[in-house]
# Entry
Amino acid sequence: MGNMDGKAVEELSTTECHQWYKKFMTECPSGQLTLYEFKQFFGLKNLSPAANKYVEQMFETFDFNKDGYIDFMEYVAALSLVLKGKVDQKLRWYFKLYDVDGNGCIDRGELLNIFKAIRAINRCNETMTAEEFTDMVFDKIDINGDGELSLEEFMEGVQKDEVLLEILTRSLDLTHIVRLIQNDGENPHETEQAAKAAQ
# Structure
């Protein structure tokens, strides 16, 4: 099992845990999700190279013990963190996700590429382009102007700026994944649209 702090799991209701477990074990009877199964699990197909790299990075950040698999505890802890974690916990996870090369800093290229990939997958309706967002982040929170964001700069800057915090939170909103889990893989919006089309 993944090496996780139990507090994140305790915040989930029994019903949520049961739904997530049922979905996880149905999709992954071995109890260990590979990268390929992770993509299948969340319906991520025909991804661009940038989006594929983002999904791989997300998988790696969810694989807390770095064994190449996501077990049920890692899965629940990751979803709980993203859905119910405190702001500083989420920001630390976002930072780790954006820091693609793992050097402890986020540069413009990393932020831009990940943000483009997130948009391609989540299809969020932001009016600002990924380039404008990246420029805004660096203009507002790159305090020392070195073109890289340390964890401290990132966390302090985003927490002080409601607009940045709101955009980051919206862009990494995983409620659509929770809806899929709760509806046994059926997208409620597609089901509604199909019902309307049949009438």
About this structure: The beta strands are 32-33, 70-71, 105-107, 148-150. Residues 108-122 form the longest helix (15 residues). The first strand starts at residue 32 and ends at 33. The two ends are 48 Å apart (CA to CA).
